[in-house]
Design a protein that fits this description.
The complex is a heterodimer. Chain A is of the alpha/beta class. Helix content of chain A is 24%, strand content 23%. Chain B has helices at 2-6, 8-12, 15-22, 80-95, 102-111, 129-136, 148-159, 172-178, and strands spanning 31-35, 40-42, 54-58, 61-65. The chains are: A alpha/beta, B alpha+beta.
Amino acid sequence: MFVCIVHSCIQYNTFFADINVFVQTEEPSDFTNIANISFLNPDFVVEESHFQNIPHNSIIILDDFSFKVINKETKQNFLKVCNYILRHHNITLILIIHNLYSTNLSTEISLSPNIIIAYTNLGEIILR
Amino acid sequence: MFASYRKIAKRLGGNSVLDFFHQVPKNAHHFLYINNSKHYLINQVDLLFSKSTVTMFAENKTFVIHQQGVECCCEKPIEETDMTSTQLEDYISHSYPKQKFLKIISNILVKKNLLNSDLYFIDNDKVHVADFISFIINRFDKNNKPDARIVKLCKTLAHKNVKFPNVSIKNPQAKKLLC
C-alpha cells in the first residue's frame, strides 16, 4: 500500500484535529478514529463538479483510488482539480493506492509532491 | 528528458536513493516519505510519531532526525583505552585488593597507552600485565634470575622514559630498571 498526497495544505500541528475529513472507502471501519469524518458516495470522482460541496480547508481521502475510465477528459479533469480547485480551496487530496497496475496512475504518482510508500517490491518500482 | 524527470529516484539523487530505501528491510511495517517538491526522503517516517530517531536523505547526504533534547543516535564509541583501564582496574582490585599503589601503576600504563585490549604489553606482546605486576610486587625475589622477557620489557620501558614511583615497585631488580 502507498499513499500519494496530491496536494497538501495540512498544518501538521492541527493534523486531523479541527479539519473536515471526507473519505471514500469500502471499509469505513478503517477510519473510525478520525474526528469530523464524512463518507463520500461511491460515485465520487475527481472532477470539478464533485468538489462544489466540499468546504475549504478540508481533507479528502480516496481509498483504493484508480482511474476507472481512462481517457483524455478524465486526466484533464484530474489535473484541473489538482491545479486549481485544491490549490485555491486549500483542500488536501490523499489517494491511497494498493496497486500500480491497471490504475493508470504512474504519471500522477511520480509528479505528486508528497508520496508515502511501504517497503515492498511495488514501493521500489515506484521509486525507480 | 521528460521520461527521466518522471523517475523519482533519478530526480532525488540516483542510485543512492535506492540504497537509502534498501536500508530498511522489505515488508517491514514502516513507510518511506518522499517530498518531491523539496527533494528529500525520510526512512521509516511513521517512527517520527513514536519518539524514535529516523534518517533523512537529501542531496546525497543522510541526516538523523530526533526529538529535541534527546541524545543523538550516533553514540560515542567506547574507546579502547577506557575498556583497557576498566579491565585493568578490575583485575587489580580483585587480585591485589590490599596493594593500593598498584592503582598508580595501572594509571601510568593506561595513560602511556602501553597495553593492548587483551592486557598484553604493546612493546612485548608475550608479557601479560599480570606477569608484570606479579614481578614488580615480589619483594623477596632477590636472587632468582627473572624472566628474560620481563627484563627486556622493563628495559624498553626505561628506554621510553616510563617511570614508576619508588614506593609502588617492591622487587629490587625491577626498582633498578623502572624507578
